Amino acid sequence: MAYKPQYYPGTTSVGKNRRKHMSGDLEKLRDISDADVVTVMGHRAPGADYPSTHPPLKEMGEPDCPIRQLVEPTPGAAAGDRIRYSQFADSMYNAPSVPYWRSYWGAINCRGADPGTLSGRQIIEARERDIEQYTKVQMDSEMTDVALSSMRGCTVHGHSLRLAEDGTMFDMLARTEMGSDGKVSYVKDQVGIPLDKKVNVGKPMSEAEVAKKTTIFRHDNVAFGGAQGARKFDEGLIALHHMWERRSRWGFRPE
Amino acid sequence: MVTKSDTEPVQIEIFPRRFLNPDTAQRLLDEIYRSGGVLRIMIQGPNLPRAVPYGPGKGLPIEEHKNLLLELGDQAIELRVKVGRIGLELESEEDIESVRAACERTLPFSFDIKKRQLFHTKPTVSDYAKYGSEVEDKRILGLVDPKAKKERNLAMLSDSRGDS
Does residue A100 lie in a domain region? Predict the structure, then answer.
């Protein structure tokens, strides 16, 4: 029988969603064009050539190395692209991919990527044409709700703040706006430089929907320690305690 | 007979469930001001910068945050924060109910009103650095951040309560 990774324990909807994000088995909710993704990222103009930091690997004449023979380079690495990034802030008010799950998704599913989670933001770095593809997957799939998540390269403040009246996450640079039709558009790229044309990313999910799709445990949705008055710890919490105890006592070695 | 507690000022904080848009904040403050009994008002929330503060776009103006004004009584003050909390000092405990009613009329979502000490009563070291050893009007203590400019962020309202 083929091995099937388990990724994450737990029977709650949060546990299931965390497994979905880590496995990369994600539902596609919208289709944002490649040009729009590139525009919001702001590293190059859509349609422009990819600047490079070194010649294509085939022209470079690589040393005789068994690892290089084993590992096929990503398209960006093969072409010698620059390293670029996309960074998302996700609201703690039930955003779908918060707080670590973009990074876990990136680490498990994206080749040649360097993910990182900081306080309230998650960044993935990779070669330019690779990160564009990874960013499109994030923006198109259920990892992103257009009101509660947004691409923010700098001035990311918003994750732990209350939402605005229209239900969008606070953004100091006003990169997105909610139209009168209820659809969200990016009016600036991820670092706050105004765009020539708005990028429409569609309607946000309803409150009930994000509560089902979120990966965050919250006392007012799916609580980490079970419902108040009827404590029943999620398997995820038991596993976490187990790791914490083993790690504290002896240094955790999962064998 | 008027007891001492009836006449003592009280300080309360309005904490709405969501950040207020400038027009909602304006309507709420109008209602509160009209209901009377307000001694001090403080508005607090995350900063709305006028220009991009960091990164490749540093210095670019943020048009969305320009010309945000709060008009109250005979004064207009530039709104430089997303309104998240409103601190009030009221003449007496009885005024809390009229503030609560104003919030219920104006806010389309839930809110909390907490009664607590918001403003300090004695000058701090920061106040000494900012205002000197003699503070003319003790009501300004604790109203603005130590680094904020009081000329820009502080307004003295007359007692017309917006009736005129």
Answer: yes
Same domain, residue pair A65 and A163: yes
Kindly report the average pLDDT of chain B as a whole number.
Answer: 86
Nearest-by-Cβ selection for B60 from A170, A172, A192: A192
Check if B56 contacts A (Cβ < 8 Å).
yes
Q: Does B68 touch chain A (CB under 8 A)?
A: no
What domain range is A247 assigned to?
Answer: 223-255
Residue B162 pLDDT exceeds 60: no
**Spatial contact of A190 and A134, defined as CB atoms under 8 Å apart:** no
Per cent of chain B over pLDDT 90 is 55
In this structure, what is the dihedral angle of CA atoms A184, A185, A189, A190, given to the nearest 10 degrees? Answer: 10
A35 at B interface, C-beta within 8 A: no
Residue A6 counted as domain residue = no
CATH topology (fold) of B4-153:
Alpha-Beta Plaits (3.30.70)
**Total domains, chain A:** 2
Structure tokens at A110: 């994206």
ipTM: 0.87
